Every structure is written in C-alpha cells, then in structure tokens.
Amino acid sequence: MVSGTVGTGTALGAVLVSLLAAPAQAVTPADTDGPGARPAAAVAAAPDDAGLRAILRTARTQGAPGAMARIDDNGTVHRLVEGLADRATRRTISTNDRFRVGSITKTFSAVVLLQLVDEGKLKLDTSVNSYLPGLLPDNRITVRHILSHRSGLYDYTNDLFARTVPGFEAVRTKVFSYRDLVKLSLRKARTNAPGAAYSYSNTNFVVAGLLIEKLTGHGVAAEYKKRIFTPLSLADTVYVHPDATIPGRHANGYLTPDAAGAALVDSTRQTASWAQSAGAIISTPHDLDVFLSALARGKLMSAAQLTQMKKWTQVNSNTAYGLGLRRRDLSCGISVYGHTGTVQGYYSYAFTTKDGKRSLTALANTSNNTKVLNTMYRTLEPAFCGKSAAASAVRGATRSGGPATAPPERHEDIAPGITRD
Ligand code: HEL
C-alpha cells in the first residue's frame, strides 16, 4: 500500500486507541494546484491514437473482453474501440455505450455538496454530526474530511469484497440504506484520527449521500439530475438505484474471479446498492467528457468552491486527491483532473486538462484484473502527452504484470485485490 501521508493500514487496536485519543496530526491539504501539480502548460502534443489503441489492445490480451476510449479535444473527437461489449451476442463495444462509472460518481456527489456550500446550506469545516446528529462517533469529523478521504472511517467494502465473486453475488440484488452501510463501517476501528491521514474509503461518500439527502430533502437521483445531468444535457447519464438494469445501449461488465483461469462472470445486472452516492452512476464517454470539461471550466460551482475542490492531499509521487477529485501529474509536465472507477465488471478513467479543453474517458469491461487496471492507467499518457509519452506507456502496458521488468505501480492496495489510489 502506498499511503497518502501518515500510515494508513497500520496495525489497529491499541495503536489506534492512542491515535484516536491524541490530538489530530492534521494532514493539511495544499493550495490549489500545488505543490506537485504541473502548471497550466497547454497540452501541446496531439493525442496519439495509435499509442492509445495499442494500450486498449493490450488490455484485451490481458483478459478484458472489450476496451474503449474517447477523447474530446477542443471540438475534435477521437474514438477508439477494441473488442466486445457483449460476449453472448459478440457485439463490438462502442464509445456510445453506457457503463457503470463506479467512483467517478464521487465527483458528481462532491459537485452537489459544493453547490450547497455556494448556496450557504453547508460549511466544509463544520462537523458532519452538526448536520446529521449522532451519525458518526467523533464530532471532529468535518465535511472536508469526508470529501478528501481524511475522516478515518473504515471502508466497509474491504470486508464485503474480500472474496470477489461470492462477495459480489451476496450483494448483487441487495438494497442497503446509507445508514446500513455506515453501520458496517463503524463495526471496524477507524484508520486514523480525523484529518490525520488520507485513507480512501467508500464510507465517506455514503456520508456525502446522506448529507445531500438531509440538506435538500431529496434523494441523490433528483439532485444529480437537477443540478448536473439536465443543465449539462447529459442525456445518457442516469442514476437508477436500486434498479439493477442499465437502461438502453450499454457495455456488459465481466468480473474476473479470484481463481486463475475461472470463467468471467457477467456482472452487468446489479443494484450497486453497496455503492450508491459513492459509485452507482451510469454514463457514457461523451457525457463524462462534457461533465469534467464543464467542471474544469468553472461552470458547475463558484470559483471559490472550485478552489476548495482543488486543495490537494498528496497520495503518491504522481497522484493527489482534492474534494471528490483526483489529480494525476503526467510525464509531459501537465496535470489532469478527474476520477477513476472500479465497479464489478468495469474499470474506468475520466480526466480533463486544467482548462477543460481536452478530456479522456477510457473503459475496460472487466475488473479484478490488476494487469488490465495497470494497463488502463497508462491511457492518460498518449491521450494528454501525445506520441513521445505513448511509446513508454505502451512499453509499460506490454510489460505490465511481467515479473522483473514491470515499472513500479502507482496504486495503493487497501484490500485484497482492490487497487486504490
Ligand atoms: S476502489 C478504487 C476505485 N473506487 C473504489 C470503488 C471505486 N470501488 C470499489 O470499492 C469496488 C470494490 C470491489 C471491486 C472488485 C472488482 O475488482 O470488481 N474487487 C474485488 O472484489 C476484490 N476482491 C479506489 C480502485 C477508484 O478508482 O476510485 O470505484
């Protein structure tokens, strides 16, 4: 595991008791775009479609039935597809296909909460318990801690998905309330004192969903729609929880079992109730590109709130986390902003440049396959850095998972088989 700052994942128990009793050693997020962020360097190089395609092909050879990417570059669209959306019908994957975006949902939830800050209904540095009395066991946990994964609330999915296919089948048709999920988290010791460390946890964005519900009086579906989907005309973006079906044209998702060589499990149909406001949105590459571009251009919140969203906690050498937003620092000297998603059967990446002029969404329709995850991670370089970077990204993708030559990976492993950063 690569920890954000202070050691997450330390042995808990006695250590944690003293940690929680001690005054929080705050991990102070850095100011907007600093310190590791690369300046506003314009994206000079054209996207390298050939390099990107080679990466998508590698993902297929590593076990993804299909892989695709769409780049929206200042009005020019690049579409790349490899392989299948559906193994039964053998339909080719399309960049118009809907898919489960997983934790890219967190950026949508953060946008809603930051809009509520703009409306004077929420304060980032106020205790969550002052809005939701008694919900959390520590009044020091603030809204900002939740949105930056610094609350220390344990991630209940570590336990739910310790065994991949049995874990998935046990929740596939379940409907949880947000409070059920918070309760699962609170059965376990917290990972750190409030504010003391970055420790990625779905629980934080379940709390975000509860806050949205409490402050607006509506479910997240209505708020996403009113505040984001409709104003941006995201016609293919939906939140259908607890419905288990992806409406309309979509790529099926195929979960990789833990046992080597076992057949992929079609995991398309599920309530995604374990994820909800932390991961249950369904969208397309076009819509995600539009969403992130609008966010970067300041169309979804005030400049003051966008500044808050981009206060960074460094996660590792080339990744930082803001408020429901990731920053990746690329080899060509620019930083890109967005999120990643892993939901059973789907690995997704959606990032945009600082000015929102170039956006990438990439998808592989499998998950629980670290080789594919690491390969898809490399799509950012050819998309944003062009040819020079693509060569090394492709080399890396080809080697990914290889024994001696694999480059160091930039992910944190929090739970068995779940790669996070
Ligand atoms: S994990 C992440 C990603 N986030 C987090 C969230 C999301 N997704 C999950 O928590 C899903 C966990 C189960 C995934 C499952 C698989 O691979 O389909 N794995 C297992 O069951 C392993 N035993 C941090 C990677 C993100 O990128 O933000 O999405």
Poorly predicted segments: 1-25, 400-417
Count of distinct strands:
16
- N/C terminus separation: 9 Å
Bound molecules: ligand HEL
Going across the biggest sheet, name each strand in turn: 3-2-1-13-12-11-10-9-8
Tell me the radius of gyration: 20 Å
List the quaternary state of the chains.
single chain
- The overall pLDDT average reads 88
What overall form do the CA principal axes indicate? globular
Q: Give the helix tally.
A: 15
Beta-strand portion reads: 15-25%
How would you classify the helix and strand content by structural class?
A: alpha+beta
Note the main sheet.
Answer: 9 strands, antiparallel
**Roughly how much helix do the residues carry, as a percent range?**
25-40%
Task: Please give a structural write-up.
With 421 residues, this protein is α+β, with helices and mostly antiparallel strands. Helices cover 32% and strands 17% of the residues. The protein contains 15 helices and 16 strands. The protein has helices at 14-21, 49-61, 105-118, 128-131, 143-147, 157-160, 164-171, 178-186, 202-216, 220-229, 285-296, 303-309, 370-377, 380-385, 387-399; strands at 66-73, 76-86, 91-92, 99-100, 254-255, 265-266, 282-283, 313-316, 319-321, 326-329, 335-343, 346-353, 358-364, 366-367, 412-415, 418-420. Strands 3-2-1-13-12-11-10-9-8 form a 9-stranded antiparallel beta sheet, with helices on both faces. Strands 6-5-14 form a 3-stranded mixed beta sheet. A hairpin with a 2-residue loop joins strand 15 (412-415) and strand 16. Residues 1-25 and 400-417 have low confidence and may be disordered. Bound molecules: ligand HEL.
